[in-house]
Amino acid sequence: MTIVAETPVSRASAGLGARAYWGQLLVLASAMAAAGHARTALSPLQEAMRLDLGFTDTQMALLQGAVIGAPIALSAIPLGLAIDRWNRKRLLIALVLLSALGSALTAVLSDFTALAVARCLAGVAALSIVPVVLSLVSDLAVPEQRGGATTVAIVGQVAGNAAAFALGGALLTALPSADGSWRITMGWLTVPLLPVALLLLILREPARAQGEMPQAGLGAALHGLRGRRRALAAVTLGIMLTETAIGAILIWAAPFLARQHALPPDQIGTLMALTMLASGLIGPLLGGLLADRSQRVGGPRLTLTMLAGLSLLAAPLAAFGWVSSTALVATLLICSATMLLAIAVMGIALFTILAPPAIRGLCSSLLMAGILLFSLGLAPSLVSETTRWLGGEGQLGAALSLIGITASPLAALVFGLGSRRSAAPNALATA
């Protein structure tokens, strides 16, 4: 079967000059920043909230993971179909507002069940923003430039993550030390989401790659995936394994620094913000450049081979949980997050090239569901259970390192097998 290549919608054919093109990308990056900010806002407050409400590590893992991962996995297909059929600008605005509502409710609730519902709303809405943005980015940039465009979007998300850690840590330290100070901090962290919703009003809905919204049923649409199923499966599973390590760091690194290195909240916030910013700028830039270069030179087969190599290099960097020097911990943490983000961006860029344009939104939504099942549904509980198995709260760092050192070689194996079994070196070749 021959797979018909997509007809890309360049910024010129969409009526966009270079300035307007970059302006639209920056608006989309702001939406990704809102997604990262809303999803991460609780992380710097996690230990204070746990102590104030008397929650266990298992309960906190559920609030940060399973209550978000499971619902968004169930909503993946409806969300994907909505992305491929509805106005994506309006969908983005609605999702940003819903994430703000969930964050605001988190600041005022105390009951575990009620908090689980609030975190579910904030997390599902925030993370649903990502496949919407990826769909829009794919229609703004041609395949050979999609790595760079994806980099801009991911940098926005990481900037939102970093801002949440920096602001959360600074506010929590500045407030009087008392029960409930995390609530005030969470309330203030909700405020930046509202200007983003207003900024999205200037976003232009780009023309879709095939000129019209798909009308075929789900079964017929999925039939179009057959020719590239092996490469897509390898990219998807490799990304999910990489995101497992990223999710573990994002959720548990702050409590690890508090417990095993006795750092105060402001220093933890600064260190995590530095980690997010450094890795969030260098990692996506590296991943985007490598994605565009490998796509031009050797297509998906070369990209998958490079992804396998980078994953092997990422494994030893996860040893930060086994060292005693805070400076060395910070260095390894930044390097590990940088490499993992480079792999994730490179993989996502390849995924948007391989996914058929008619159902790219659906494919991206399903990818996001898979990522969340690993990074939110699996990683938080995996860290807490591994910590318990290793001997208790003092082994949190060892658990983080063990998971990172295991996930990266597995990802390398998956990417390598995908490269060897790909039917052709070109993304849109005969299968």
Characterise the protein shown here.
- This protein has helices spanning 18-40, 46-53, 57-74, 76-85, 88-108, 112-140, 146-174, 181-190, 193-199, 218-223, 229-261, 265-297, 299-314, 326-354, 360-390, 396-421.
- It is an all-alpha fold.
- The protein has one domain: Growth Hormone, Chain: A (Up-down Bundle), CATH 1.20.1250.20.
- Helix 1 (18-40) packs parallel to helix 5 (88-108), helix 6 crosses helix 15 (360-390) and helix 15 runs antiparallel to helix 16.
- The longest helix is centred in the middle third of the chain and has 33 residues, at 229-261.
- The radius of gyration is 21 Å and the shape is globular.
Task: Reconstruct the topology from this structure.
Blueprint: H1 18-40, H2 46-53, H3 57-74, H4 76-85, H5 88-108, H6 112-140, H7 146-174, H8 181-190, H9 193-199, H10 218-223, H11 229-261, H12 265-297, H13 299-314, H14 326-354, H15 360-390, H16 396-421
Order of helices and strands: HHHHHHHHHHHHHHHH
Assembly type of the chains comes to single chain
Spans of at least 5 consecutive residues with low confidence: 1-14, 211-217, 423-431
The CATH architecture term is: Up-down Bundle
Radius of gyration: 21 Å
By CATH reckoning, the class would read Mainly Alpha
The CATH H-level superfamily is MFS general substrate transporter like domains
The gross shape turns out to be globular
Distance between the termini: 6 Å
What is the strand content?
A: under 5%
* Tally of DSSP helical segments: 16
